[in-house]
Amino acid sequence: LEVKKEPEADAARPGFYLGATKFAAANGVEAKSLNGWSYVHRAVGRHVIIAGNDAPDTLVGKRISSKETPLPYEGTLFSTAEFLYRFVGARFLSPDQSGTTFLPLSIIHVPRELNTKGSPHFVEHDIRNSTDLFYTANHCRSFTRIWSRYGHQHPSAVPVSEYGKTHPEYFILTGNVRQPKVSAQADQLCFANPQVRELIYKHVLARCDEGFDVIELGQADGFQPCQCQECAALYGVKVTTTPADGIAFHNDRAWCEKLWIMHRDMALRLMKDRPGKKLMITSYGPTVRPPQTFTEFPENTIIEMMHSDAESFEAWKPIKVPGGYSAYLYNWGNFHLVGLTPLNTISKIAEQNRLLVANNVRMVQVNGSPMSGQWGLEGPNIYAYVRLGIDPFSKTAEELFNEYLQASFRESEHPMRRFFLNLQKRAELWASIREYAYQSGRDPLFALGTLYTPDIVNSLEEDLGIAEKAAVLPEVKRRLDIVRYEFDFLKHLALVIHAYRNHQAMNDAHSLNQLLDAVDARNAFVAKVVNGDDKYPKKKNPAYLYLDEAGVKYAGRYLDRAPFNWDIAKMRANPAQLSQQNKSLEIAKVSAPLTLDSPL
């Protein structure tokens, strides 16, 4: 369509009027009155008004992200994308170059009585800070009016870099020593120190004064309690364990209660100091359980459910939370036991959305965004998830699953339907064995070997091969390339595991050489992923784009073990080492107590 500024428009021709136009204002659409991600679609005669909230972003540079990329007219862009989805067959499938497509339509029909004002069900939906059309069109850009440090505000309020040397008393006491730096991720605080509590509260006030409407409040990750006597006595809540009790001391219910009391006190102060502002307090780690010493929070409090399951929501029913709930989700990410392989099913996505809607969750944050090696194999799940976040009522997750397959694969739809249904069954099986896998020492080889047996891998390969042969449209071929890339990653992973299990059973030179060949082949594939090739140039690879070599090779930290971490070249150069590889460790009995000088 021809694009013109409003003064140049031909009034005799029908047009789409985008944003805060004079035509929109003359017909009762005041774009300046829109807020958040609300939008307007209105037909006026033969014209259509499409508008969104395009107010300037006054919080750029104030959020925790240091690489913000604000978009001008993003509200109208979202409104336009939603209009195109509903009336013009647009499908926003992924952020790569083939991620936007249009269904073939014989006619575009806009109802003459169209007059819609709406907004996404998730009014704030934090997935990724990116200017890619996918994120705006699917309303999953980073929080706009919420200040967040992904659940952990305390380290921003009392940073060790600023106070570690000058005020070690702000940090936890362990073994009679103040510990300004407990780990690389977690600066643990002494909450009995009134200056610490004041720094946390002043940090909240500062974020309010910057213009944020909601400030997230939560303790550092990997919570460790302070061992000082003042913390043990804080708020009169008695600690019933001692540091010598180890994990029992860390999990003592008293720490949960002390944190809730401290955070609730801050919410009460904020009501007086900054009326209208809200605190989003995290229910996570020690505070995953609701408080016991009180049953009601102030009206300016939102509880962020870091475990957004039915059991957690049920546990919170006796507690009055006037501000309602937000959710923190772990649907994707290479920190999971099964790493960069599929984690979700359409039925899981549907149930999760029903649970969030039933509990009136309107703000959602996603940990481990679906950005790392999952656009192909998790494609239908991601698509259904983001569309349900915009509108959970018009279409079911199953309908969106079908919508994705039709839009993505066109002439290759039927074999890809078999492919994804088969893949969904494996993810369903993971849900069944997950607890056992975690309890059995977090064994990823057990989990992955159980999920992706040789017959399943061969069946998936067959359907993907049929789909690749049937593909004609360039965009379909491109999407199949992404699926292929991710499936080959999964297949190499499975082949190594099965070769490893076979060698453990046979324990001979032939099976070991087969295993080394499988590990070599996988390492070569990982190198191609990391360094790029002709099809996927370096830094433009849609699969595993945001991971370094270790992140791809070891899928987080769970595969940094035999046989994936073997030095294959060194092993091949030393045949004696091959014969020793799987010999059991012999332990000799001793006749006297062991000392530092005892022979090994």
Strand order of the largest sheet: 7-15-14-13-12-11-8
What is the typical, i.e. mean, pLDDT? 91
CA-based shape: flat
Structural category: alpha/beta
Stretches where pLDDT is under 50 for at least 5 consecutive residues are none
Query: Regarding quaternary structure, how should these chains be classified?
Result: single chain
Q: Would you count the extended β strands for me?
A: 15
Rounded to an integer in angstroms, the radius of gyration calculated over CA atoms is 28 Å
What percent of residues are in strands? 5-15%
Helix content: 40-55%
Report how far the terminal alpha carbons are from each other: 80 Å
Biggest beta sheet summary: 7 strands, parallel
Number of helices: 21
Features:
alpha/beta, seven-stranded parallel sheet, four-stranded mixed sheet
Protein model, in words:
The protein is α/β, with parallel strands linked by helices and 600 residues long. It is 41% helix and 10% strand. The chain is built from 21 helices and 15 strands. A hairpin with a 7-residue loop joins strand 4 and strand 5 (100-102). Helix 11 (346-358) runs parallel beside helix 12 (379-390) and helix 12 (379-390) packs across helix 13 (397-409). The mean pLDDT is 91.
